[in-house]
Structures are given as C-alpha cells and as structure tokens.
Write a structure and sequence with these properties.
Chain A is 32% helix and 18% strand. Chain A has helices at 14-20, 37-40, 42-45, 56-61, 76-81, 139-144, 147-150, 153-156, 172-198, 248-257, 273-287; strands at 49-54, 85-87, 94-96, 100-107, 118-123, 132-136, 168-169, 211-214, 223-227, 236-241, 265-267. In chain A, strands 6-4-5-7 form a 4-stranded mixed beta sheet. In chain A, a hairpin with a 6-residue loop joins strand 2 and strand 3 (94-96). Chain B has one domain. A 3-stranded antiparallel beta sheet of chain B has the order 1-2-3, with no helix packed on it. Classes of the chains: A alpha+beta (288), B mainly alpha (202). Chain A: Pfam families: RRG8 (PF17068).
C-alpha cells in the first residue's frame, strides 16, 4: 500500500522546513549581543566606597558652579567642627575635641609632701603622650564633677596597678581657676607677640569670616556675629569681646597698642589658629 | 604616595583601588527646572535627593540609618526657634534672610561636596583647594552624624529629654541648669553659627 505523507506545510514555519532540507544555507555562528551585568552594573557589586566623580572638565564646564568652594579653611566654626571626636565623660556624648577640656595624668615625685602618686591637670594644647579624659568646656562642670568621673578610664580600670582615690592629687582651684589663668596668660602672650608683627600690616581690611578681638565695655555680648553693611562686600565678622576678663593689660593691648582697625584687632583663622582657640575656650568656659 | 589609576572603567562608573566613582550625577543634583516646581514639589525633590545620597554616606547600615533619621528630623524641626535661641546670646541678628528652600539647596550642595571626589587631590591650585574643602565637609558631616547618634541615644524612651532636645531646645540656652548638655550645646551652637555663615541648614 502506498504511504501517505502527512501535509505539514501549514503547521511548520517555512524556515524550519528549509533547515530540514539538505540544501539549507550554512550560517556562521556569532556571539549574541547580550549586555552582561558584569559590565553594565559593575558599580553595584564592586564592593568599594561610592563617591560622585567630578573630573576637571566637569568643574570648569558646569554653570552655575555645581561644586563651589566654601573656603571652609578660613572658617572658625568649620575648623572646630572638623576636629576628631572624643567622649565627654560627664554626659557620655561624643563631640568634636574642640568643645571639651582635656585632662591629663602626671606622675608626681616619690616623696612629695601630700604622699600622692599621680596628679590630674588640664592640658591646654592637646597631645597623646599620656592617658587622658575629656570633660565639658564648662567651669561649673569642672567644679562639680567627682574625681572618679574626671579620671581617665585607662587609670580607673588599669589591671597593672590599682589607684585609690586618695592617691590622686587633684586641686579644684587648679582645675578651674588655674585653667582659666593659663588661658589668659596664653592669650596675653599671643597678643604681645603680635605687637611687632602687626606694624607692617596695619592697613589690613576686614574680610568675610575674620575674627575681630575687642575690649568694649558697652557691648554686652562675649561672642557676636555681625554683618558690616557699610563695608565693601558686606563681610560677616565674628567678634570676641574680652571685657569679662577685667584685665587692664588686655585693655591697653587691644585698644591702644594693637588696634589695627577702628573696632579692634583682626585675626585670621589659619594664621592665628591657636590664639583664636584659646579665646574661644575662655569665652565658652566662663559663660557656661 | 603611589598613584593607582582606574582599574576598571565602565560607562556608568570608574573603579579605582579604593573607590567606585559614579560618573552620572544627574539623579543626585537638582533638576534644571527646579524653580518652576511648587513649594511641596520642591520639598519632595530635595528630600529625594538627600535620600538618594544614602549609599554614598556610608556602607554601614547603622550610619546610613543615622543619616536617614537626621534628614527626617531636619525636614520636621522648628529651625527658626532653634536659630533664635542661639543667636539671642550672640548678637541677636540674623546674618541672612534665605528661605528654607534655598537653605535646603545649599545643604544639599554641602552633602554633595562631602561625598564627591575631585581630580587633582593633594595638588596646589583650584582643584587641590576644592578637594581639601570637600574633605572638611566630609569630616563635618561625619561628626554631625556621630553627634546625632548620641542625641538619639539621650532622647530614647525619655520624653523629657526629647522635649528639651527636639521641641523646645532649652538646652541651647547658656543658663540651662543641667550640665549634661554642656558639650552638646557648644557643638550645636557652633553648627548654627556655621549655618549663619554658609546659608545652610545643617
């Protein structure tokens, strides 16, 4: 009986029927154009810290400026806020080091009169040479905090040597008044040093964010932000008023010898950083 | 220091030894027609940009969480009251009259600077100075987030502390009796003074 081939023309597409025939055209295999996530989204799994990238062209081309320079290097508050973080032992809050007083432990001579072993004293210029603790920049806090709160934790919890509270020399006056006196001396010395330098630069003008040191009995603010609208560029100036120190020497230095401007002395932040820091510490310590 | 060039470069990013540098900045910057938006639209645009910058702030979830909470508080808090309390003891005058939207835009620029990488780091000239400025922004933002984390810790399950720290801002007054907030007050006062000088709202 003759075989009947089924008619598949309507079911199989033409291309497949051609492939099935002997005379099908040979095709060269090629790589399919698939976009692999290896290259399209590599940044998602590269595992590195992400940052926005600004090339030199990006910066020069963008108008208005996408990435302006704030000039924070000349800003007192920015400089204080960028300092490393330290733990305040009173509140257990971590704040930048500029808003705290560093206390350091010093070894005393063996046969001292009070028979104490170590002494606790504030450090003016912070350093890392011995164990230290940090307390708020406040006179009242230093006067009222207990010795165990003031001691550095490395001394309190040392496993090598246990220090009894009676072995630690701590003078409250030295902590509060002594700290203040040290700062006042440093400020006075710093201003005296400027006497020789300022002679040539007496005509220096007020620029934005400068610090103006005054001794003004009529001004009731210790630290003030003021905009000088009559000057060119309308600069915003930070004014320190040291009248609360009641020192005739400072009055004479600021109002007579060093007066570079009709209001007082102009200081700039990267140049006179230490002097400005001492003045800020004095104001914050006294008012709080 | 040995300078290592890009290891892998793709159309979207450049991978160096330490960083993934994202080339396309448009999702993180303000749209060109920003001024045409309504007030609520502007606020939404700003909030989205701040939140989109989250992966750039840190790779650690805890710090990213602090940043998110910080941004949310910034959109809710009564900044004018806070500003007045601080400025009362330092002259009593405001240094600028920018609207809160403008302050928000400047704050966004500050955060963008903190997470940006500029070619020419460590060099003299414009680009080196800009890179150093960005570094200071980054340090300040990092410190702000640390302070914010500790503020959250103080107010946690403490309704009284929450009221002082977030609603009435009594702790910013120098005559406030509790010495526990002294260091926090110094830091926050400086932040507000910095805001006065830069026109930001950190």
């Amino acid at each position: 009986m003759r075989k009947v081939r089924p008619h598949i023309g309507g079911l199989v597409p033409v291309a497949i029927t051609r492939c099935m025939t002997k005379n099908a055209p040979k095709r060269v295999p090629c790589v399919p154009s698939v976009e692999t996530p290896l290259f399209t989204n590599f940044q998602k799994w590269a595992g590195k810290k992400k940052m926005l990238y600004f090339s030199r062209d990006d910066i020069s081309r963008s108008k208005p400026l996408m990435l302006p320079n704030f000039n924070l290097n000349g800003n007192m508050f920015a400089q204080m806020l960028q300092k490393p973080i330290r733990l305040d032992t009173l509140s257990r809050v971590k704040v930048p080091r500029a808003f705290l007083v560093q206390l350091k432990v010093h070894k005393l001579a063996v046969n001292n009169e009070n028979k104490k072993l170590i002494e606790l004293a504030p450090a003016i210029i912070s350093g890392s040479h011995s164990s230290s603790s940090y307390v708020p920049l406040s006179r009242q806090a230093l006067a009222t905090m207990s010795l165990s709160q003031l001691l550095p934790s490395s001394v309190k919890y040392s496993k090598m040597r246990h220090f009894d509270v009676s072995e630690v020399a701590m003078d409250r006056d030295k902590l509060t008044t002594g700290y203040e006196e040290k700062l006042v001396n440093l400020v006075t010395d710093g201003l005296k040093e400027l006497v020789g330098i300022f002679g040539d630069e007496a005509d220096v003008g007020l620029e934005n964010w400068d610090i103006l040191v005054t001794y003004d009995e009529r001004n009731s603010y210790d630290m003030e932000l003021r905009q000088f609208e009559d000057l060119a560029g309308k600069p915003v100036i930070i004014i320190f008023n040291l009248r609360f120190l009641r020192s005739e020497e400072l009055d004479r230095l600021i109002n007579v010898e060093l007066k570079t401007h009709e209001y007082g002395i102009i200081l700039k932040i990267p140049k006179n950083e230490n002097l400005i820091k001492f003045m800020y510490n004095l104001i914050a310590f006294k008012t709080c | 220091m040995i300078k290592v060039g890009p290891l892998i470069t793709t159309p979207k990013a450049i991978m160096t030894k330490d960083f993934t540098l994202i080339i396309n900045k448009s999702p993180y910057t303000l749209p060109t027609d920003f001024q045409k938006y309504s007030r609520s639209g502007k606020l939404r645009v700003l909030y989205r940009r701040f939140i989109r910058l989250r992966p750039f702030i840190s790779r650690r979830a805890m710090i990213r969480g602090s940043y998110t909470n910080y941004i949310r508080h910034k959109f809710h808090e009564n900044y004018e009251l806070k500003r007045d309390i601080v400025l009362k003891s330092s002259g009593g005058k405001r240094m600028h009259d920018l609207s809160d939207i403008e302050m928000g835009c400047r704050t966004l620029t500050f955060v963008q600077k903190a997470v940006s990488h500029v070619d020419g780091e460590g060099e003299d000239g414009i680009h080196g100075a800009l890179a150093h400025d960005n570094l200071i922004c980054k340090r300040i933002l990092k410190n702000l987030l640390t302070i914010e984390f500790h503020r959250e810790r103080l107010e946690f399950r403490n309704a009284v502390a929450y009221r002082y720290l977030r609603l009435t801002f009594e702790y910013l007054d120098p005559t406030y009796r509790n010495l526990k907030y002294a260091s926090l007050r110094h830091a926050d006062t400086s932040i507000i003074h910095l805001n006065e000088l830069l026109g930001t709202r950190l």
